[in-house]
Fold this sequence. Notes:
Helices cover 26% and strands 32% of the residues. It is an alpha+beta fold. Strands 1, 2, 3, 4 and 5 form a 5-stranded antiparallel sheet that branches. A hairpin with a 6-residue loop joins β3 (20-25) and β4 (32-37). It is globular.
Amino acid sequence: MVSLTKILDSKAATNDTLLNAQVVRCPHCEQTYRLEYGEGEGRHLSAWLKKADTAIRKSHKRDNHKMEKLKLR
């Protein structure tokens, strides 16, 4: 399982239980997100980071990061 959650006031907007995480920042503003992934997903991290970057860029253009969680496609 992989999730992308908005960080508000240095805390994730929702509380997930995944142990592995990376912080990803929007290239257009200062909004940050936490990319969390399970043990089996770590080997695909570069692909997930690309998907996270795409989702964050679309969120910035669409609604200026109003959603707390973004879908990775």
